Amino acid sequence: MEKYLADSDVIIDLFRGNAKVKEFLDDNVNNVLVSYVSLGEIFQGIKNKVELVKINKVLMPLEIDWGSHEIATSSIALLKRFNLKYGVGFLDCLMAATALDKNYVLVTRNAKHFKFIPKLKIQIIK
Hints:
It contains 6 helices and 5 strands; from the N terminus they run E-H-H-E-H-H-E-H-H-E-E. By secondary structure, the protein is of the alpha/beta class. It has a 5-stranded parallel β-sheet with strand order 3-2-1-4-5. The protein starts with a strand and ends with a strand.
């Protein structure tokens, strides 16, 4: 069975009440992971304690991928290869490197940050 790595935008849209994202995550809750990168992005955007409580509840059932030395090294290689040509950022490279290393399907709402990376499996939720 496929394992899915949820991009930050997917978790944020879940928090905002996106029904398609909720359905996907409900159907795959035991197979969806979130990267520590996404956790950082999400917690950085929290504005108050009410949001903190809500986001903790959303993230509670999801497994966290804490990365590795290999993922860090691969993310730098992806950044060097694709930043100038496609403008991809470091955090997106970390997400892609994690998905590639663990053979996860990267679930995102914005494929333009990832579609040029060879062998990266992407699932887009509209």
